[in-house]
Amino acid sequence: MINKNYDLLGEQLAESGLEMSIVIGAGAIIGAATSVIGGIFGSSQADKQNREARKAQDKAEKAAQEAADATNEYNKRSFEVDKQNYANTRAFERETLIKRWQYQTEQQDFGYLAAVKQYGKSVENTNDRLVYNSIAAMQAYESEQEALNSILTEDTFSRQGMLVDQLQNEGRAALGQAGNSRTKALQSNIAALGRNAAIMDASLSSSVEQSQRNMQQIGLQRYAADLQANASMMIQPTKGPSTPLPIQAPERIFIEPMEILPQAIQPARQQSTFAPILSGFISGAGQIAGGIQSTYQSPIPQIGQQSRAVAAGWPGNQNY
Predict the structure, then answer these.
(1) d(CA 92, CA 111)
(2) Per-residue pLDDT tens for 133-154?
């Protein structure tokens, strides 16, 4: 039966004279354990610092995102307000232009109607003036005609009186004288009558010619007065062109604000959580290695130990 606890290597070493015993000191074990635990604690601290760094990074990224969102919301709202203010201003400007255009149109119509009224009044005044000139001329004609008629009537009466006087003179001459004296008297009366008739004819003709000249002067005066009346009459007004419709400037083109991206946040600096553990294990292994005490007897005798080897029957010490 094979003994499982049989140490064949140890037996062979014992037979060959090789002996080795490994002894690890308690301090080395404690130091190694401390190093390993320190490595684990360092890894835990690194992991905690990494989580805090990631949390700070997440917080900074969230704050940057909120700031960007707030800025974008403000820019969007400001953009909408600018467009609304522009629309309100443009509507007010259009309303003002339309009111101004209506006022100018009303003023133009009012001015035209006032000019038409003035022209109508001017035409009425001119017609009244022409009627007055016509009446005045007619009155002047009538006065001149009456004056001429008076001259003609007076001339007629004068001629009749002259004939009566001639007849009376002829009668007196026929009664008071005889013969040649009466004939001479009659001839003298006839000659006087002829002279007087010629004077009266000349005077009447002169009066008629003067009356005709007066009539012509009256006509010229009326013509001049009519010309003056017509010249003072206003020119018939004409309506001017309509006031053009108001035109607004082209509409403004708006560009939407560019979206602002969040501020770039530097990635959190991560520490290795494996390095402290590895360093602890390496340090612990070094301490364990440094704390191992081994007893080893070499089959080769050292100087000063030859007698012991000989006594042990070491074949290498035999003399050949």
Answers:
(1) 28
(2) 999 999 988 888 888 888 888 8
